[in-house]
TrEMBL record:
GO terms for cellular component: cytosolic [4Fe-4S] assembly targeting complex. PROSITE patterns: WD_REPEATS_2 (PS50082), WD_REPEATS_REGION (PS50294). InterPro entries: CIAO1/Cia1 (IPR028608), WD40/YVTN_repeat-like_dom_sf (IPR015943), WD40_PAC1 (IPR020472), WD40_repeat_dom_sf (IPR036322), WD40_rpt (IPR001680). GO terms for biological process: iron-sulfur cluster assembly. The keyword DNA repair does not apply. The lineage of its organism: Eukaryota, Metazoa, Ecdysozoa, Arthropoda, Chelicerata. Belongs to the WD repeat CIA1 family. It comes from the Eukaryota. This is Probable cytosolic iron-sulfur protein assembly protein Ciao1. The gene is Ciao1. HAMAP family: ciao1 (MF_03037). CDD domains: WD40. SMART domains: WD40 (SM00320). WD repeats lie at residues 8-39, 53-85, 98-130, 195-227, 249-290, 296-334. Keywords: Repeat, WD repeat.
Length: 334
């Protein structure tokens, strides 16, 4: 059962994205109002504890935390990526702006080891940045970045990127209806696999915690689950190793914009343009997924993003065109 437990208000335009910091003590949100808001739990309620402004002059489309939780990356329609640093609780400053995209940046993603930062955009390009030092404890560890590669393998806008949770493998989703996998080979980043099952724009993807499964969602109103049948051979990569094992459909009436795979449980949440959220639970014995709950009117407008708390399987956050963020309690036994 999915129950709304709190509404977070403060954004003055649509909420595009949500990102929990690694230990789940902060929730970052951003949107069309060009601000980033940080929310923390005070007593029984989550409250806004900081507002980051001034580094972007257009919508902030995407956020990603560094693995250490000290840095937050933001991607904007102003064609830049900004890296913010927390010097003390509630005290944040922009420490670097990464430029190179020719138009709107749609997504930014930090690799699990913190060494790479990737961004993608309307210009059909994926930029992969690498830290100038590999010591995350040094002050400048996440403030000096070099461009490792620029990929232009998609034929249309690149909507979303996500890193594998254990290995330096990057996945991208595009307006060209495909999902692509990239890895570094002899110093260059190479696309080694393309998934073509979706019939329209692929909006989002997320890995299972073990990295053996991938979930994707699309304008075709389906959620697809993929399994890596060469999982034991990672980090070596093989072509045609990802196979679709499940197609979930019939639960959303419009585009599915975002999916989130819980880091602590075998559940997936989806957010849709039909104002709803849906929850899918995995049957590990059968490798199948069933819709265990749906909130038909989760928000008053399109739901753009959904994100599970990194440590609590019962806590979920969603953001919408209605300017609001909602926190949900999920009871998988109800």
């Amino acid at each position: 059962m999915l129950e709304a437990i709190q509404t977070l208000e403060g954004h003055t335009d649509r909420v595009w994205t949500l990102a929990w910091n690694p230990d789940g003590t902060l929730l970052a949100s951003s949107g069309a109002d060009k601000t980033i808001r940080l929310w923390a739990k005070e007593g029984d309620k989550w409250n806004c504890v900081s507002i980051l402004t001034g580094s972007h002059n257009k919508s902030i489309r995407s956020l990603s935390w560094s693995p250490c939780g000290t840095y937050l990356a933001s991607a904007s329609f102003d064609s830049t990526v900004c890296v913010w640093k927390r010097s003390s609780f509630g005290n944040w400053s922009a420490v670097v702006n990464l430029e190179g995209h020719e138009s709107e940046v749609k997504c930014v993603a930090w690799s699990a080891d913190g060494f790479y930062l990737a961004s993608c955009g309307r210009d059909r390009k994926i930029w992969i940045w690498e830290r100038a030092t590999d010591d995350m404890d040094e002050f400048e560890a996440s403030e000096n970045w070099d461009c490792s590669d620029v990929k232009e393998d998609h034929s249309k806008d690149v909507k979303h990127i996500v890193w594998h949770p254990q290995h330096p493998i990057l996945v991208s989703c595009s307006y060209d209806d495909t999902v692509k996998f990239f890895h570094q080979k002899e110093g260059d980043w190479t696309c080694y696999e393309t998934l073509t099952a979706h019939k329209s724009t692929v909006w989002s993807a997320d890995f299972s915690p073990c990295g053996q499964y991938l979930v994707t969602c699309s304008d075709d109103k389906t959620v697809r689950i993929w399994k890596n049948h060469a999982h034991d051979k990672l980090p070596e990569v093989e072509e045609n190793s990802w196979k679709c094992i499940s197609v979930i459909q019939g639960y959303h009436a419009r585009s599915i914009y975002n999916v989130s795979w819980s880091k602590v449980d075998n559940v997936i949440a989806s957010a849709s343009g039909d104002n709803s959220l849906a929850i899918y639970r995995m049957d590990t014995k059968e490798n199948t997924f069933i819709c265990s709950d749906k909130s038909s009117q989760s928000h008053d407008c399109d739901v753009n993003c959904v994100s599970w708390h990194p440590r609590q399987s019962s806590l979920l956050a969603s953001g919408s065109d209605d300017f609001k963020i909602k926190l949900w309690k999920y009871d998988n036994e109800a």
